[in-house]
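Section 4.2 – Deliverable D4.2 (structural model, holo form)

The reporting period included a commitment to supply a predicted holo structure for the target in complex with zinc ion. Inputs used:
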Amino acid sequence: MAMNHIQFQHGLSMPEFFQRFGSESQCAAALEAARWPHGFCCPCCGKTAHCVLRGGSCKVFQCNACRHQTSLIAGTVFQGTKLPLTVWFLAIYLISQAKTGLSALALKRHLGVDRRPGSRPKTGVRDRRSEKDRGQV
Ligand SMILES: [Zn+2]
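Output (structure tokens):
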């Protein structure tokens, strides 16, 4: 019988997850690296010269060429959230690790947030997955 490579692929254990994404600054750095793998690129004009107006998870970049300002989370699934990135990253991890799906109630319990924000990460991640499946990402 052929081995199912998907089933036996190496995953990320919970301790490894918290080691990599346990703090807000680690999540912000990971998001920045995923969003701009070759460094900041202005979404307006495409230039790379910029300055940072505010640091942290709400890091704000300003393009030196056109003065357009954008935050680290603007235009991402995290835009407009009041939840810390650590909660979002944990939600993504839990949803991606659940073989049979994860209810909004179970996610709420794991994340320690009330139902409404607890259901938002799931909805956001699910919508993003659907876009990816349709090849829109
Ligand atoms: Zn620009």
